[in-house]
Specification:
By secondary structure, the protein is of the alpha/beta class. It is built from 7 helices and 15 strands. The radius of gyration is 19 Å and the shape is globular. The structure holds flavin-adenine dinucleotide and FE2/S2 (inorganic) cluster (FES). The site of flavin-adenine dinucleotide has 23 residues, from strand 4, strand 5, helix 2 and helix 3.
């Protein structure tokens, strides 16, 4: 790995004494620079980041990076960009605390530390030849979006594709411009629903009702693979609905969130029953975790 001290910015001075040995340390972040910071909704920001030196690491849809704001801390944030676009990593961050708040305040040109990618990906290869259902609630769309990109970019490899996205209100919609592009596509069934509509909203109103989606009949549950992402309670409900409709449990996948430290299966911080969310997850199969899913902090 090459690091170029000439590329350092005012935010961080790259230590000239770093050796190849220290650079190989998996706990040592690589330096990335913010090239775009866009507010999606008031407390949610999407940043595009590029390596200060070299190429960005390849990643699979569903994986995450550990993002480090120097002097503040490090948190897990999902990839939310297109895995096929090697020019950058894209992350969408909700400000819920110290580190996530600092990430949302980064500006173009700022440098941050990145470790990763880590974890398991969405089963986009296993889904080939099957109908695909992708369901998200709120910011759960961010970790799901790379899988949506992959399936849409390779549309011919999949059966019918159904995408159900739920938000609290029209003001909470992420990636608005993309919706318009996705809406134009005749080869997917896209349903966007909001809990609370205003007068301007012309779409569906109501929770992420998988049953209603199932009734549209645009996929065959027995030949379907489902990817589900959102708050845990909602994911459990959505997965149960899909299972009750006939989607096999072993073809329903979740993305789980647990606080993390090492992200490499060492510290145990992210343990979820027998699973370490950082290395066995974050994408986990429903039948492997359904028995412990109801436990709030395991
Ligand atoms: C695999 C993985 C992927 C993630 N992807 C994303 C992402 O793409 N975008 C994003 O914004 N966040 C994502 N998160 C969540 C993110 O890591 C946390 O929000 C972050 O750790 C909060 O750190 P903080 O220091 O800002 O807040 P803290 O001070 O740690 O927490 C502030 C408050 O937020 C609550 N909180 C902390 N973490 C979460 C959480 N995961 N869900 C709900 N409430 C929480 C805490 O209980 C506390 O009340 C992901 C987490 C994991 C494990
Ligand atoms: S974060 Fe350390 S084991 Fe998962």
């Amino acid at each position: 790995m090459q690091r170029d001290s000439r590329s350092s910015t005012s935010t961080v001075k790259i230590d000239e004494r770093l050796t190849d040995e220290t650079l190989a340390d998996p706990f040592l972040p690589e330096l990335y620079r913010v090239v775009r910071a866009a507010t999606e909704i008031p407390d949610v920001v999407t940043i595009d980041i590029v390596p200060v030196a070299g190429e960005r690491a390849a990643f699979a849809a569903g994986q995450f990076n550990m993002l480090y704001v120097f002097g503040v801390g490090e948190v897990a944030i999902s990839m939310s960009g297109d895995p096929a676009d090697m020019s950058r990593h894209v992350h969408t961050i909700r400000d819920v605390g110290m580190v996530s708040g600092a990430l949302t305040r980064l500006k173009e040109g700022d440098v941050l530390g990145v470790r990763g990618p880590f974890g398991t990906g969405w089963p986009v290869l296993e889904a080939e030849g099957l109908d695909v259902v992708m369901v998200s609630s709120g910011c759960g769309l961010a970790p799901l979006r790379p899988a949506i990109y992959h399936v849409l970019n390779n549309r011919e490899r999949y059966g019918r594709v159904s995408i159900l996205l739920g938000f609290h209100s029209p003001d909470d919609l992420l990636y608005r411009q993309e919706f318009e592009q996705w809406r134009q596509r005749l080869d997917i069934d896209l349903l966007v629903t909001v809990n609370h509509a205003d007068r301007s909203w012309r779409g569906n109103v109501g929770g992420v009702q998988v049953q209603g989606f199932i009734k549209r009949g645009n996929f065959d549950p027995r030949e379907t693979l489902a990817m589900v992402c959102g708050p845990e309670g909602k994911m459990r409900y959505m997965a149960n609905s899909l299972r009750d409709a006939g989607v096999p449990e072993e073809r329903i996948y979740f993305s789980m969130e647990r606080n993390m430290k090492c992200a490499m299966g060492i510290c145990g911080r992210c343990q979820f029953g027998p699973e370490f969310t950082c290395k066995d997850g974050p994408v986990l199969r429903f039948d492997r975790i359904s028995h412990i899913l109801a436990v709030r902090e395991i």
